[in-house]
Design a protein that fits this description.
This protein has about 140 residues and is an alpha+beta fold. It contains 2 helices and 10 strands, in the order ββββββββββαα.
Length: about 140
Amino acid sequence: MADTIQVDIVSAEHQVFSGQAEMVFAPAELGEVGISPGHTPFVTKMGPGEVRVKDTNGNESAFYVSGGMLEVQPQVVTVLSDAAQRAEDLDEAAILKAKEEAENAFHDKSNEIDYAKARASLAETAAQLQTIQRLRKRSGR
């Protein structure tokens, strides 16, 4: 049997995933990282994006995370995120609407706009859409 690593993906509301994997890919702050069993321990911030978990049969499960923290120990990977969900549960119509609202906020000429919040919203919706596109490509849809 191949070596495995325990993976726990947790949002502020609930545990999204817990199980064994051969490999984990996560959107670390400075770029995507790949984690296998026995990996050197580290802790890093994550940006919004896709966490992929490859099981012992070679199948991949995809999860969207809004950012957060990634803790890696030799036999355990923990993803802590404000918001996390399975990629197939993302609502593309709602994401496109949120993206449009954030883009409109940038064009709003009033002084009441919070550019940092609008920029963060755009980054999050872009990451969600990219996660959906990757999921479609992998599943051949």
